[in-house]
Amino acid sequence: MNVAILMLSAGSSTRMGSTKQLLPIGNKTLLGLSIENALQTNAKKVFCVLGSNAENIKNSISQYDIEIIINPNFKEGLSSSIVEGLNHIDNTNFDAVLIMLSDQPKIDSNYINLLILSSEKHPTQIIASQYEKTIGVPVIFPKKYFKQLQQLEGDKGAKDFLNIHKAQVISIKSDKLIDIDTQEDYLNFLKSL
């Protein structure tokens, strides 16, 4: 199965107060760690959508074998990055896209591969991550959903879309689903290492 990873990293980190993607974690950055995890999976290619502070972030990840997509509309919210990414890969031969965020550092290659394996077993289903009461990213969408996803608007990303298509979703539980949104989240994550 030919899966592309679409890593969303275009936001302006308003709650963090600094460029979240560049936060140091060991000798890497938050975004660098997420990219390394993505590159160690069974996905065929990793795309990274940048927007706010794109040049600085792009320079910080230049060593990785990924393709950068610039989202000029990043201020319109998460959905604009999904749309920009899918517009970019729409005419390629990928069977599915795995959408993930760059601020979930505990999402490792094992978990991503688990999602990909589930997608290979159920190629027509959406494979989503199960939070306590919701489903969300990382999520794999088969190609048949690309056109609908390209119509998304707003800052909810694919959340409403997933809820509408709940009958087509297989959800996978994990304890790795933490986001780094604030300084407190970041410090707590560093303490957990």
Can you describe what's shown?
- With 193 residues, this protein is an alpha/beta fold.
- It has one domain: Spore Coat Polysaccharide Biosynthesis Protein SpsA, Chain A, CATH 3.90.550.
- Helix content is 32%, strand content 23%.
- The chain contains seven helices and nine strands, in the order E-E-E-H-E-H-E-H-E-H-E-E-H-H-E-H.
- The strands form two sheets. The protein has a seven-stranded mixed beta sheet with strand order 5-4-1-6-8-7-9, sandwiched between helices. The protein has a two-stranded antiparallel ribbon with strand order 2-3.
- The N and C termini lie far apart (33 Å).
- The model has no long low-confidence stretch (mean pLDDT 95).
- This is NTP transferase domain-containing protein.
- InterPro entries: MobA-like_NTP_Trfase (IPR025877), Nucleotide-diphossugar_trans (IPR029044).
- Keywords: Transferase.
- GO terms for molecular function: transferase activity.
Q: What are the main properties of this structure?
A:
alpha/beta, single chain, 7-stranded mixed β-sheet, 193 residues, two-stranded antiparallel ribbon, Spore Coat Polysaccharide Biosynthesis Protein SpsA, Chain A
Q: What is the strand arrangement across the widest sheet? A: 5-4-1-6-8-7-9
Total beta-strand segments? 9
Poorly predicted ranges (pLDDT <50, ≥5 residues)? none
What series of H and E elements makes up the topology? Answer: EEEHEHEHEHEEHHEH
| CATH architect. name | Alpha-Beta Complex
* Helical residue percent band: 25-40%
Instruction: Quickly name the level 1 CATH class.
Output: Alpha Beta
Whole-number count of domains: 1
> What's the overall geometry?
globular
Rg from Cα: 15 Å
Number of helices: 7
**CATH fold group:** Spore Coat Polysaccharide Biosynthesis Protein SpsA, Chain A
Pfam families: NTP_transf_3 (PF12804)
Protein name: NTP transferase domain-containing protein
Domain MobA-like NTP transferase: 6-165
Keywords: Transferase
